[in-house]
Design a protein that fits this description.
The complex is a heterodimer of chains A (325) and B (350). By secondary structure, chain A is mainly alpha-helical. Helices cover 77% and strands 0% of the residues of chain A.
Chain lengths: 325, 350
């Protein structure tokens, strides 16, 4: 029931995202641009800017949200977001180093540095967190992730503070945005995010069992270690690719899973599909609002998401019976 | 008949006197003492090092009052305030972290949970970018922003009492919004101002004058005993509201007091030196592992915070000399490295 409502809402947001902007484009023009493109100005705007921006928003939104849902379920910590495994810190660190020492300067260049950094750091967090007999318990993963993330963040900001021109490009990168991304970015991250989403759907059942606690899950026949590895691979693919594509966008991964849990309860087999639908609503709506409020200037999507999402979250927290993990 | 002594598995000393009885855990006491000694050693090292190097015995001599006028100027007037501030603020941050980690029963709990850091950064940014800044104006802005945010979060989360989880969620929401504002402000500012704001935002002890020491000292003299006095009530609260209530600890009242104390401690540090990252997060956790207790302890955390910030400040001044880094970057690097090492070592031994 809610799923239908959410899908409708998502459809509306997608429509708004292709039509609304510094130049309003009517719906039938958009349809024509998709079906029978010609070289008119409107068609160019739709095909080159609006469409890639919208589908990238869909993809990145779903990826960030699901990554958040997975990591909260895995660590059983409502404060967890994908950043906890060091994804943002790793991406930021790699981009800083790329700009500082390898002269990277374009969105395409940032993309691979950012993705590589995110993956490398997550692997490092997982390796450090799973040394020893007890393996990668959620609490140790969280703490190692936060510590390593802070360490890399500290080094990166140390480097940037000593070099003003570097600081300038990093402050721009660190406010994530959907603007200026073309189809190449979309195709580059699509396989990673698709694989991550499939893994996430497959991991939903074991995650339900893990929620009962590691020992109980094990005695019920769940393979806790394997499920955990699958989840971490999924989070790395999803959050790493999304961050690589749009830069750090906070809050989507943190907030949407909370809201979804209030709608559908604690069953991961529902939470993950709902998150796939609901997260892009927030991201795309934020993008549309960002184009409109200060028109003709644009607000970064990472700035707007919190402003759209936080009031909803606070309202839900006050209204509903809280559902902790 | 005397009841049989229960072996809790941890050595304890019990002091009994006519008016007072005190149970002290041996390992906690030893750890805290060693940490406090370390903090003193770090202070002496910081006082002696710099462009004008003073050997440690001369530092002690100068502090005792028989130094040359030149040594007196350098050690007591220039370096002492900064060294004392590092120790005090480190302790304040760590205490505040311990309080919030205990209240939220979450190792990620920190004053950031009630939005303090984001709010104070917003306040300071507004003052710096719109009103031009200045030490006291920025401090006031940070203080106002942080306290207002914390109060707002507490009020929004209040519905017949404050429940830990709701506080967390509301705090996330409000800090995310303020974080967005901060990002936007930094993005819109011109480069020089943004850079200056970023240095403040990283937390820095440089440029502190002797007269800035006294207010901090006075406030700490009030806050420190008050907080330590609430230590046992805090431990009861960790057992859950019902158990705490049954053992005579009024849950909501104590929680409010602790939140106020925790915010006040962070507010003090933020106003004096900017939002120094990570001490409040990592100090209670490191202290917990060193003392081997199940929960976070106040006194060991405070001692560890003092050592960490003193060490970080020493490194920030000396590591890339003459280039000076904000101390916040050093706390993150040193604290992070040590914490990772501790986690890895603790697990490989088991």
């Amino acid at each position: 029931m809610w799923l239908v409502a959410c899908s409708l809402l998502l459809g509306l947001v997608v429509l708004a995202s292709v039509t609304v902007g510094s130049k309003h484009i009517a719906m039938d023009t958009v349809m024509q641009a998709v079906l029978q493109p010609d070289s008119s100005n409107d068609h160019l705007i739709v095909r080159q800017f609006r469409l890639p921006r919208t589908v990238l928003g869909l993809l990145a939104g779903a990826a960030l949200g699901v990554a958040g849902a997975l990591i909260q379920a895995l660590t059983r910590n409502p404060l967890a977001d994908p950043g906890i495994l060091g994804v943002n810190a790793g991406a930021g660190f790699a981009v800083t180093m790329g700009v500082a020492f390898f002269g990277v300067g374009s969105i395409g260049g940032y993309l691979w540095f950012s993705f590589g950094g995110a993956v490398a750091v997550t692997v490092a967090v997982y390796t450090l967190g799973s040394i020893g007999r007890s393996g990668a318990t959620p609490i140790r993963l969280t703490l190692v992730g936060v510590a390593l993330g802070a360490l890399l963040g500290g080094i990166a900001s140390g480097v940037t503070l000593l070099r003003p021109e570097l600081f300038d490009s990093m402050r721009s990168w660190s406010a994530g945005s959907l603007a200026g991304r073309n189809w190449a970015v979309f195709w580059a991250v699509l396989p990673f995010i698709a694989a991550g989403l499939l893994l996430a759907l497959a991991a939903a059942r074991p995650l339900n069992t893990i929620a009962l606690g590691d020992d109980l899950a094990r005695s019920l026949g769940a393979r806790v270690g394997r499920a955990r590895t699958v989840v971490i691979v999924a989070v790395t693919l999803l959050a790493g690719a999304a961050t690589a594509a749009v830069g750090p966008v906070g809050f989507v991964g943190l907030m949407v899973p909370h809201a979804v849990r209030w709608l559908v309860g604690p069953d991961q087999r529902w939470i993950i599909p709902y998150t796939i639908v609901c997260s892009p609503i927030l991201l795309l709506a934020a993008d549309v609002v960002g184009r409109v409020v200060l028109s003709p200037q644009e607000l970064r999507v990472s700035v707007v998401t919190a402003f759209l999402g936080a009031p909803v979250l606070i309202l839900l927290a006050r209204r509903r019976k809280v559902s902790s993990l | 008949m005397k009841p049989a002594a229960v072996d809790f598995g941890r050595g304890t000393w019990v002091l009994r006197h006519r008016l007072l009885s005190l149970r002290v855990e041996v390992r906690t006491l030893l750890t805290t003492t060693v940490l406090l000694l370390l903090a003193v050693v770090m202070m002496l090292l910081t006082l002696g090092s710099g462009d004008f190097a003073v050997p440690v015995d001369r530092v002690v001599g100068t502090l005792m009052g028989d130094g040359t006028p030149q040594e007196y100027t350098v050690v007591v007037q220039w370096r002492l305030p900064r060294a004392v501030l590092a120790v005090l603020l480190g302790a304040a941050l760590a205490l505040s972290g311990a309080i919030f980690q205990s209240l939220t029963r979450n190792p990620l709990g920190s004053p950031d949970v009630v939005g303090f850091s984001a709010g104070s950064y917003t306040g300071a940014l507004l003052v710096m970018l719109l009103a031009g800044g200045g030490y006291y104006a920025t401090a006031a802005g940070a203080l106002a922003g942080g306290v207002a945010t914390a109060a707002l979060v507490y009020l929004l989360a209040y519905r017949r009492g404050v429940q830990g989880f709701r506080l967390i969620v509301v705090g996330i929401g409000v800090s995310a919004m303020l974080g967005a504002v901060n990002t936007w402000l930094v993005l819109k500012a011109n480069l020089d101002e943004a850079l200056q704001a970023a240095v403040w935002g990283a937390g820095s002890l440089s440029g502190l004058e002797p007269e800035q020491l006294w207010p901090v000292l006075a406030i700490m003299a009030v806050l420190l005993p008050l907080t330590l006095a609430h230590g046992s009530a805090m431990r009861q609260l960790e057992l859950g509201d019902d158990v705490a209530m049954a053992t005579g600890v009024p849950g909501n009242a104590v929680r409010l007091t602790l939140v106020v104390l925790g915010v006040a401690l962070t507010a003090l540090a933020t106003a004096a030196a900017g939002p120094i990252a990570f001490v409040s997060l990592v100090a209670p956790q490191i202290a917990r592992r060193l003392t081997g207790t199940s929960g976070v302890g106040l006194l060991p955390s405070a001692a560890l915070g003092a050592v960490l910030l003193a060490l970080a400040d020493f490194a920030a001044q000396r590591a890339f000399a003459p280039e000076q880094l904000p101390v916040g970057i050093m706390t993150v690097s040193l604290g992070g490295l040590y914490f990772i090492w501790l986690l890895v070592r603790a697990s490989s031994r088991i």
